[in-house]
Amino acid sequence: MQSQAPSPDDLGGVDATPRHVAIIMDGNGRWAQQRGMDRTWGHREGVKALKPIVKESSRLGIEVLTVYAFSTENWRRPLQEVDVLMGLLVEFLAQETPELRDEGVKIRTIGDIERLPDSARRSLDWAKAETAAETRMVLNLALNYGARDEILRAVNRWCRDDAATPLTEECLAGYLDTAGLPDPDLLIRSSGEFRLSNFLLWQLAYAEIFISNKLWPDFDPEEFRRAIRDYQARHRRFGGLG
Ligand code: IPE
Ligand code: IPE
Ligand code: MG
Question: The whole model's pTM is what?
Answer without folding.
Answer: 0.94
